[in-house]
Amino acid sequence: MTRDTTFQVNLYPESYQEFGHMLEEEQPFLVQGSVMKRDDDARLSARSIYPLPTALPGLIKRICWILDPQQDCSGFLTELREAIDRGFGDTVIQLGFLTGDRCATIAETGRSMQWKVDPPAYHSLHSHSCVVGAEIEAAPLVVKERSWKRA
Question: For 22-139, where are the alpha helices, taking DSSP H only?
Fold first, then answer.
């Protein structure tokens, strides 16, 4: 939706005071808040905002890369290992290999293959010709309850 549509995001004074210093033009953010929709108009009232590159590694718990074994996967596997070496983290990596009829055999990897997800590296890995797709498991979002102060 956001690729084709724009909508207003309200950041209340308390939230702006807490998170406003993180705002950068043209940078992606994770926004937690409430959506208000009326007719064809939608607004988001933000409770908190986090730069996506900082927030993303903690949110992605597992990535299962689905690979086509008919393609050369050596470049993908080398780049994946290099990405993990640059950023060891908590995201579990699995490798799935298509076996026919769009079914895949999934292989668990060891703890040494856990990754701190880096968005540019993810996009580069996902663009390899042997990658059919990726299944991502995210942690549930924990929404901070807003404490309203009386003036």
Answer: 52-59, 74-86, 119-126
